[in-house]
Design a protein that fits this description.
By secondary structure, the protein is α/β, with parallel strands linked by helices. The chain has 14 helices and twelve strands.
Length: 417
């Protein structure tokens, strides 16, 4: 059911960690295989008067620690295997961060840029409406991911609330602040990526003010990661998005990039002189390479040619197991901050949003950021200690903490009935 390259990747990573943790084979499926998969057909009226149907999914990986939690992706690549893999990764990520959640993920196979705003609203609302029997603030809480944003979350919340006859802010996170969202959520993932990068720089002895970075993906995660790195003096040499890549060995003008993206929505047309080959961008020499777009961009084919000192995984699953094997051999040259640690700022602040919504009591930005950085520091230190103590890669150390946490809870709760 979940077959495909992305789920295979989640499975391969899990098997390696299960071997390390010496988990008996008969226990492994209970930990890895998702609890539920819901597939929905979402019909909408197109602007031209025709009807169209889009396929949507929601995978809830496990409910052992609390409700499931995870983003919703609108992209042409979305399929059951991709959504299931992302749900599994969310589980290990939440457990590593100590959050009372299992992992979930959802999505619709659609290019949201090919829809008008009215069509996007209709599709978002219909997707949530189809999922109402399967979600609630105490069973599954959605959030944004690639191709969705605060507006889509507001439509999800409004649709759910209309059916309940009352406003239920806590059904989704990543909402606008004026619709029950929390301050700091929009920036949380990117700022968290930068925070983990600064921790890694301390460990390898790089001064941020003299450092350089290349960022792939300039959406929510990539843009805030780049802005936050630049605030501490890091020179951003290159950026890219689905429309193209830009590179300047002297450093890009971050304020100009910010203005361009605010006005146009993408990097398209930022500059003709600085346009660059997107595949080559990843291979340029830099201190920090931050893949913040999608899965499987660092592979067996390019991992050996990377010329960075730190890989900061803003995206989920950007490094394939084949690349991991190469990076493991290059452990002394390249410091990897694995995705479930590096981009966990998003779900940590989503958790804060859910808590604030449930309590109807909102925190200020200083409180949100202080708690976020404390949580990231805790996870970062745990991963580094475990990697050192057991001679593991950072990825395997992070996954081992996540998997072990879920396993311990399952064992202690027992198997029902
Ligand atoms: P987004 O839709 O805001 O941005 C995605 C970016 O990737 C866009 O700039 C897009 O143009 C770019 N992109 C797409 N295809 C590309 C390609 N071939 N080459 C270069 N760039 C390309 O999405 P996002 O929320 O920033 O998510 C990005 C990644 O981060 C995803 O892997 C997502 O799962 C992960 N993530 C997101 C969050 C969050 O809070 N949004 C949290 C954790 C992890």
């Amino acid at each position: 059911m979940y077959s495909g390259p992305v789920f295979d990747m989640a499975k391969t990573q899990f098997s390696a960690v299960a071997d390390h943790l010496e988990i008996p084979h008969c226990e492994r499926d209970r930990l890895l295989m998702p609890k539920r998969l819901v597939a929905v057909s979402c019909p909408i009226h197109r602007d031209d008067g025709t009807e169209a149907v889009f396929q949507g999914y929601r995978v809830q990986h496990h409910l052992t620690l609390g409700p499931t939690k995870g983003g919703t992706r609108f992209a042409p690549s979305v399929d059951v295997g991709e959504v299931a893999a992302l749900a599994v990764w969310m589980s290990w990520k939440c457990a590593l961060a100590g959050l009372p959640y299992g992992g979930a993920k959802g999505g619709i196979t659609v290019d949201p840029r090919a829809l008008s705003p009215r069509e996007l609203e209709a599709l978002s609302r219909r997707y949530m409406q189809e999922l109402i029997p399967f979600v609630s603030p105490h069973t599954d809480v959605m959030a944004p991911d690639m191709g969705t944003n605060e507006q889509v979350m507001a439509w999800f919340m409004d649709t759910y609330s209309m059916y309940q006859g009352q406003t239920v802010n806590e059904i989704v996170t990543g909402k606008p602040v004026w619709c029950g969202g929390t301050v700091g959520r929009r920036e949380a993932t990117g700022r968290g990526v930068a925070h983990c990068t600064f921790r890694a720089m301390e460990m390898v002895g790089i001064d941020p003010a003299k450092a350089t970075a290349i960022v792939q993906g300039f959406g929510n995660v990539g843009s805030y990661a780049a802005y936050t790195l630049a605030e501490r003096g890091v020179t951003i040499l290159g950026v890219s998005d689905h429309t193209g890549a830009y590179y300047d060995p002297k450093g890009l003008d971050i304020a100009a990039l910010r203005r361009h993206v605010a006005a146009k929505g993408t990097l398209e047309g930022f500059s003709t002189e600085l346009a660059f080959d997107p595949d080559q961008l990843l291979l340029q020499k830099c201190d920090v390479l931050a893949p913040c777009a999608m899965e499987q961009v660092i592979t067996g084919a390019n991992a050996g040619a990377l010329r960075c000192r730190i890989i900061a995984e803003g995206a989920n699953g950007p490094v394939t197991p084949e690349a991991d094997a190469i990076l493991d051999e290059r452990r002394d040259e390249i410091f990897v901050i694995p995705d479930i640690l590096c981009n966990s700022g998003g779900v940590i602040v989503s958790y804060f949003e859910w808590v604030q919504d449930l309590q109807r009591y909102f925190w200020d930005e200083a409180e949100v950021m202080e708690r976020l950085y404390a949580a990231l520091d805790r996870s970062f230190s745990q991963v580094m200690s475990r990697a050192k103590a057991r001679n593991l890669s950072h990825r395997n150390a992070a996954l081992a903490i996540g998997v072990d946490t879920v396993r311990r809870a399952k064992q202690t709760r027992g198997l029902f009935p």
